[in-house]
Amino acid sequence: MATEVLWIAAIAVLVAAAALARPRRPAAHGRDRPWPLEPTPTLLTEPEQVLYRRLVEALPEYRVLTQVQLARVLRFKRGQRDRAVWNRISQLSLDFLIARPDTSIIAAVELDDSSHLRSDRQDADARKGHALESAGVPLIRWRVGKIPDVASIKSAVAGLGVGRLEESCVGMTVRKARTVPVR
Known about the structure:
- This protein is an alpha/beta fold.
- It contains seven helices and five strands.
- The chain has one domain (46-180).
- The radius of gyration is 26 Å and the shape is elongated.
- Residues 164-183 have low confidence and may be disordered.
């Protein structure tokens, strides 16, 4: 029995010594070699590219930003940080963000394809919509099968009451809404 204990102790010492003697990797956390990454061919899908071009044409006085992280658009009110809320929005992104030249926000735009019918996407869409509504940022949603033309885009954004664009769309029918529904 005592011999077995000595053998186990000896093996444990040898294993510990081998672990300590082994060369340590630098604390580069994997940065000592290239990661298996490559750029995506395009930032936008074909339908998103169509909508992007139309947004830019319809809103020349504004900036149309693509694939913007929601966490870069919203912030917590002073003294009201909430980790649970942060965890719900930190991985979400917006298809488009319409901003003034000074980068102040006018509206977020989402282009929904058939993947938005999946329950996980509907949950993400609901979280995204609730976050934007809570912050007072208008959200416009369009479906891939019904990508609006330039006049419809002007009308939708003018309906938000954003100055000169509103004046240039006099006579158009505009529905005031926080979110323009897609269904």
